[in-house]
């Protein structure tokens, strides 16, 4: 078995992502983003991200993240134009608990087998250099499989 993780993110993109999630959530509401990247077989590497409230200005208004159809339309247009795929999604939780809420489990952002949903603790007021405490949830046909920062699923890399 290869030790290549399923999803790789450069430290620079992760650092920028955590900064944006923190800023947009203002430490009082959840925020989130789609991770855009390229797939090679079962593996994917992240090239950029797109915050929910960029796609849909009302996405954070309820305190938890929701994306309406215009937001999804904007997302697919951006993916097509940049020739990138949605390889994962990420959202923040208020406290240290990065298990999925009932809402998270019932409403996957991308209900595709193998899709990864990340949850970042403390409204992303957290380290920008490590994956400590990040919840990693994998959507499978028969339900979710959850982990806390497993190295085989998600890894930060030094290269872009
Ligand atoms: Zn959640």
Task: Give an overview in words.
- This protein is an alpha/beta fold and 160 residues long.
- The protein has a single domain (7-157), classed as 3-Layer(aba) Sandwich (Cytidine Deaminase, domain 2).
- It is built from four helices and eight strands.
- It has helices at 11-25, 52-55, 69-82, 102-106; strands at residues 7-10, 32-40, 43-51, 85-92, 116-120, 135-140, 143-148, 154-157.
- Strands 7-6-5-4-2-3-1-8 form an eight-stranded mixed sheet.
- β2 and β3 (43-51) form a beta hairpin.
- It comes from Metallibacterium scheffleri.
SSE topology:
Blueprint: E1 7-10, H1 11-25, E2 32-40, E3 43-51, H2 52-55, H3 69-82, E4 85-92, H4 102-106, E5 116-120, E6 135-140, E7 143-148, E8 154-157
Parallel strand pairs: 1-3, 1-8, 4-5
Antiparallel strand pairs: 2-3, 2-4, 5-6, 6-7
Bound molecules: zinc ion.
Proper CATH architecture: 3-Layer(aba) Sandwich
What share of the residues does DSSP label as strand, in percent?
A: 25-35%
List how many beta strands DSSP finds: 8
- Report how far apart the termini are: 24 Å
Principal-axis shape equals globular
Run of helices and strands: EHEEHHEHEEEE
CATH topology: Cytidine Deaminase, domain 2
What count of structural domains?
1
Would you state the CATH class? Answer: Alpha Beta
Largest sheet, strands/sense/barrel: 8 strands, mixed
Helix percentage range: 10-25%
Heterogens: zinc ion
Total DSSP helices? 4
**Average residue-wise pLDDT:** 91
Output the CATH homologous superfamily. Answer: Cytidine Deaminase, domain 2
Keywords: Hydrolase, Metal-binding, Metalloprotease, Protease, Zinc
Domain JAB: 22-131
InterPro entries: JAB_dom_prok
Protein name: JAB domain-containing protein
């Amino acid at each position: 078995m290869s030790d290549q993780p399923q999803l790789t993110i450069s430290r620079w993109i992760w650092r920028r992502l955590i900064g944006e999630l923190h800023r947009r959530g203002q430490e009082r509401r959840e925020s989130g983003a789609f991770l855009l990247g390229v797939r090679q077989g079962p593996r994917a590497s992240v090239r950029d991200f797109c915050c929910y409230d960029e796609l849909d200005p009302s996405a954070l208004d309820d305190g938890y993240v929701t994306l309406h159809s215009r937001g999804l339309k904007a997302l697919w247009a951006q993916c097509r134009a940049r020739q990138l795929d949605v390889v994962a999604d990420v959202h923040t939780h208020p406290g240290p608990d990065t298990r999925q809420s009932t809402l998270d489990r019932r409403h996957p952002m991308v209900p595709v087998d193998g899709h990864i949903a990340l949850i970042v603790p403390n409204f992303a007021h957290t380290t920008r250099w490590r994956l400590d405490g990040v919840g990693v949830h994998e959507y499978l046909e028969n339900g979710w499989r959850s982990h806390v920062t497993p190295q085989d699923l998600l890894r930060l890399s030094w290269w872009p």
